[in-house]
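Standup notes
- DV: blocked on the single-chain target, sequence here:
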Amino acid sequence: MEDVYQYIKVIAFDADDTLWDCQSHFEAVEKEYCDILSEYGDSDTISARLFETESRNMPQLGYGSKAFTLSLVENAVNVSHGNISASTLLHIQSLGRSLLEIPATPFPEVESTLQAIRQSGKYKMVVFTKGEILDQENKLLRSGLWDYFDRVEVVADKTPRQYRELCAMFGIGIEELLMIGNSFKSDIEPVLKLGGYAVHIPFERTWAHELTEEYDHHRLVRIDKIGCLLDLLRL
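- DV (later): unblocked, structure below
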């Protein structure tokens, strides 16, 4: 892995919880949501039911704030057996909508690292993230990081097919791609299985849907903070 800089042509960055904090905002909304529905069950029960609702909806609704909000409303109706008031549903809808305005403030060292990679002129840079296009693009705009990237690609899910299509966009082989992200399930494992390189930057919080067994690999490096990328790339 120490010679990875010789082969890489494109560096792809996940967005949420890699470039900025997202998960803590979702957790704060879920906590308030459970408080609102406390007469229908304890927090663990409400959260477990919400997880089931999200999982059931994902094949049709995908990921992101809007899908999450629809699941919040549906689950509230279900756990209350239809007894929840319209005003409370409106409050829940407003909670979910607030996630469309999270600040997307870059983590420490993110902007300086992106700037150094861009100035090196050695790599194409792309945001490769899953979710709802408008929401993800707006977060990237609020972050102030948009101009560091050659492309912004928002996909419904990060499947092997999506990674192959990403490589095709840039006319590269998978062995010339370096993926940077916090989710082992979405950002790391698919790339490793296809033959690409990956850098895992774990975040302090992990969404339950992204939990998976992790392992070591000769094309994988784990770092504590994004600034360590510069040492890896010898910049």
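- Follow-up: The mean pLDDT is 92.
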